[in-house]
Structure formats: structure tokens, C-alpha cells
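> example.struct
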């Protein structure tokens, strides 16, 4: 019974001793220690940025920070001397020779600035899409670095543009995440709208056909080309309407479909109908592209016919079949033997099989012809009648 209370007292004494040792260890102040690499967001470097466990001296400013987005170095000996002047002693240098200090920044590339100005001008003052607006600043802006706290989007606050001189004056601002006044930017320069155009890589004469190697694609001012720029896909395979020079941007009006038939060229005349396909040799009298109507001389008959160009050196012709005119049914009857008179507008003169009495006299004194199995109708001017 006596041993049990003694064991309990010993356990309590050991627990209290352990707690006291832990409290003593927590009361020990960790020594200040230099950092090898320091990153700051403001324009100054404080003791707390350089030293771990700096205590109350941590907010003291000791150095100016490097420029935005850059990194600098500090010799450890110089840092320790500076810390001593601010009553920071006993710093563990950890055998370091120098400390690197990097200043954070927000970087905005020059291309992003160009796009921001182009977006400010988009669909204003006669401009189209921002992607087609070319911006030239009055001075080289380069990449812009701002304080790391400037995290907002670029927003235009003032936009001015003169279409005659193509000059712009655009003001932008960027909001800060910490509620401080926004950063303000202003840019001036020139802005023009451009389009993709097919540009000649060599000189072309009238009638030359463009090959793939003859055309390159460049962006050119829209005002230089007009409203009908020719794309590369459309230009290749087309024919120059006039003489064109290297570096010239092509327009639709400069090009035409290539001639498939040229003047004095030997061509093939083709006549095709149901169940019939005929070809003849001919000589073209005109130039023509696909779908054009040209004149062609039939080399066999020497007659000039018209046809439609359907391929290289090929011209299709059509033949109109004759038909009886409507007046053929209304022609007056003849006064001789009941035969119908010839009509000037009818089809070829028809023939008839008739029988007649033996030779007889007509009142005009002519002898009537003997009967025949095939006779032509008399001309319309005949007015004789049979004698009684």
C-alpha cells in the first residue's frame, strides 16, 4: 500500500520536470541567420528580407532594391557591417560570400502594348479587326516592367486618331490589386490597316501565267491595294492582264483566267450530240479562256464558225437543225393542177405525184408539159389558166 503512492509521486515529478525542460527550450531565442537568396516586391530592402529571426529590427530599411525585374548582389561583409549599425549583431553568416537580391515585377511585352493600342482603335475611325491594324510607336517602347502589385488589365481611357495623317494618341491605365491609384500609360504613333496580299517575286509580262514560286504573301496597307486584293491561292495559275513588276501587290483586276485558245492556233472543233461525236481541225481567229465564244476557221471548208472554249486547244460547236416555219400550213393553193406554190420562208420545195390529161393549149399560148411522175410546183408569178 505504501509503494503505490510512492510510484505515483515519482511519475508526477518526472512529468513536471519534462514540462519545465520544454519551456526552457522554447524560451531560447534562435540566432539571426543570413539568407543566401532574397526576393522583394517593393523598391527597398529591409533587415527582415536579409536575415531570418531579425526580431523587432526586421522592418528597418537598409538598401535600395534593384530595378524592376532585375537581380543584384550584396557582399556579406558589407551586409554584416550595415546590420551592426542598426544594432543587429550576432548574425550567423553561414560561410556565405554574397547575397543575391531579386526584385519582382510585372513584365508587359512590346507586342502586348501594340495589341492594346490596336484594340483601342478596333472598329473605330474606319478600322476593322485589331489583328489587321499595324502600330508604329514614335519611340521604341520595348518590354515594359511595372511594379508587381500592378495586376489589372490594360484599359483605354482616351483614344484620338487622325485618318489623314494616320496618327494616334492613346492613353491606357492598369489597376492595382492593393487599391492604390492605377498605373497610367500614354502612347503616340501611327496606325494603318493592312491586309494579306499576294506579292510578285519576279517581273511578269502580259499574258504570263503565275506559278507557285512567283508569289509570296505579305501584309500590305489596305489603302495601297484597294478593296480587291488577290490571295495567293487565287493568284497561282492565273494570267497577267498587263506587265507587272517584282514586289507589286496583286489585285483581282490584274489577273485573268489563262487563255486556253490563242489567235492563229490550230484547235480541235468538237461537235457532240446524242450518239454522235465529231472532231474537225480548225484555226482560232481570237484569244479565249474557258467559257469564251471565239471564231474558228474550218480548215477543210474554209468557213468561219463560232464556238465555246471548253479546254486547251478545244472549241465546242453546235448545229441548229432546220424546221418548217408556221406559214407553211397557211400557204395559198396553186391555180395549176391544185399544186401548192413555193413559199420563200418554207423548208425545201416539196414535190408531188400528179396525173394530168394529154398535152393541151393554155390561153397564153404555151404548150403544157407532158405528164410526169415528179414535178415541182409552178412559181407564184404564173397566172395562166387552162383554155377551154
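> example.seq
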Amino acid at each position: 500500500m505504501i509503494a503505490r503512492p510512492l510510484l505515483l509521486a515519482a511519475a508526477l515529478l518526472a512529468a513536471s520536470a519534462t514540462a519545465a525542460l520544454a519551456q526552457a527550450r522554447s524560451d531560447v531565442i534562435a540566432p539571426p541567420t543570413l539568407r543566401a537568396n532574397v526576393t522583394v516586391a517593393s523598391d527597398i530592402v529591409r533587415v527582415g528580407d536579409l536575415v531570418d529571426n531579425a526580431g523587432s529590427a526586421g522592418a528597418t530599411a537598409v538598401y535600395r532594391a534593384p530595378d524592376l525585374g532585375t537581380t543584384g548582389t550584396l557582399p556579406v561583409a558589407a551586409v554584416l557591417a550595415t546590420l551592426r549599425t542598426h544594432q543587429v549583431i550576432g548574425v550567423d553568416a553561414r560561410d556565405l560570400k554574397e547575397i543575391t537580391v531579386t526584385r519582382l515585377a510585372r513584365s508587359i511585352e512590346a507586342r502586348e502594348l501594340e495589341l492594346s493600342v490596336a484594340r483601342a482603335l478596333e472598329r473605330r475611325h474606319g478600322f476593322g479587326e485589331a489583328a489587321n491594324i499595324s502600330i508604329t510607336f514614335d519611340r521604341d517602347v520595348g518590354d515594359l516592367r511595372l511594379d508587381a502589385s500592378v495586376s489589372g488589365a490594360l484599359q483605354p481611357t482616351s483614344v484620338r486618331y487622325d485618318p489623314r495623317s494616320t496618327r494616334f494618341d492613346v492613353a491606357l491605365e492598369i489597376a492595382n490589386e492593393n487599391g492604390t491609384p492605377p498605373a497610367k500609360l500614354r502612347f503616340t504613333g501611327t496606325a494603318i490597316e493592312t491586309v494579306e496580299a499576294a506579292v510578285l517575286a519576279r517581273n511578269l509580262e502580259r499574258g504570263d501565267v503565275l506559278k507557285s514560286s512567283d508569289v509570296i504573301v505579305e501584309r500590305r496597307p489596305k489603302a495601297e491595294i484597294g478593296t480587291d486584293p488577290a490571295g495567293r491561292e487565287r493568284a497561282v495559275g492565273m494570267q497577267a492582264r498587263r506587265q507587272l513588276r517584282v514586289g507589286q501587290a496583286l489585285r483581282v483586276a490584274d489577273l485573268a483566267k489563262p487563255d486556253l485558245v490563242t489567235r492563229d492556233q490550230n484547235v480541235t472543233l468538237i461537235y457532240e450530240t446524242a450518239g454522235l461525236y465529231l472532231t474537225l481541225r480548225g484555226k482560232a481567229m481570237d484569244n479565249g479562256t474557258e467559257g469564251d465564244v471565239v471564231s474558228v476557221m474550218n480548215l477543210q471548208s474554209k468557213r468561219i464558225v463560232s464556238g465555246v472554249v471548253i479546254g486547251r486547244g478545244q472549241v465546242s460547236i453546235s448545229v441548229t437543225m432546220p424546221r418548217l416555219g408556221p406559214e407553211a400550213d397557211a400557204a395559198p393553193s396553186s391555180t395549176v393542177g391544185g399544186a401548192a406554190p413555193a413559199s420563200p420562208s418554207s423548208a425545201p420545195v416539196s414535190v408531188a405525184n400528179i396525173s394530168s390529161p394529154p398535152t393541151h393549149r393554155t390561153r397564153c399560148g404555151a404548150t403544157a408539159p407532158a405528164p410526169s411522175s415528179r414535178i415541182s410546183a409552178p412559181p407564184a408569178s404564173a397566172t395562166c389558166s387552162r383554155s377551154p
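> remarks
The chain has four domains: 33-103, 107-194, 195-256, 266-316.
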